[in-house]
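Quick one before lunch.
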Amino acid sequence: MLNVAKFTFNPFQENTYVLHDGHEAIVVDPGCWNRQEQRELEEYLEQNALTPVRLVLTHAHIDHILGCAWIHDRYGLLPELHHADLPVFAAGERTAQMYGLPYDPAPEPKDFIAEASTIRLGKEELKVLFVPGHAPGHIALYHAAGPFVLSGDVLFQNSIGRTDLPGGDTETLLRSIREQLFPLGDEVVVYSGHGSETTIGREKRHNPFLR
Ligand SMILES: [Zn+2]
Ligand SMILES: [Zn+2]
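Model of the zinc ion complex:
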C-alpha cells in the first residue's frame, strides 16, 4: 500500500507530498522553505522510519522547488523532472528574486522523467502522465491501486492551473485534463499542488472551468 502524506509549505501554500510504502519514500514537490518547514518534513520521515529515495517534481515552478537544495544536502537526492520543464527550473533563481524570496538554488537534475514511464517504490507503481498547459513539462503521478493521482497545479478543487506564466497555454491545459485525467475514473482521488484533495468525478460535475 502506498501512503500519502501532505504538507503545506511556503508563502504560496504549496502542497508537498511524501509517498511511502512503510520503508522508503518519494518526496514530491518539496516546497519546504524555512527551518521550521524542513523540520516538519524531517520529523515525519524520522517518526515513520522512512528513507527518502527519490525527489520527483510535477513541474518546476518556484513554489514547488524551494526545498530542493535542502533535500539534496540532507538526503543526497537530486531532483527528477520532465525535460520540457528544464527552462522553468533554470529560471528558479530569477523568479525567486522577482518575488523577493530567499532561495537556495536547486542542484542540477539527475534524471529526466519520461511520459508514460513508471516510477516504482517497493512493490508499488506510479504511472507518469504528461499534462502540459500550466507548465510546459508538467507531469501527474497516477497510482491505479489507490486509486489516486498527484495532479500538481493542473487540476484543483473547483479550479484549474493558471496559464499566464511562461510556457502556459489554456487549450493545452484543458486537453491535458480531459484526455489524461478524466479517463482515470470518477472515483480517483486528486491530490493537488494547492488546496484540498478532491476526486475526478467531483471536478467533472462541479468545477466551473470544466463543466
Ligand atoms: Zn505551478
Ligand atoms: Zn504551485
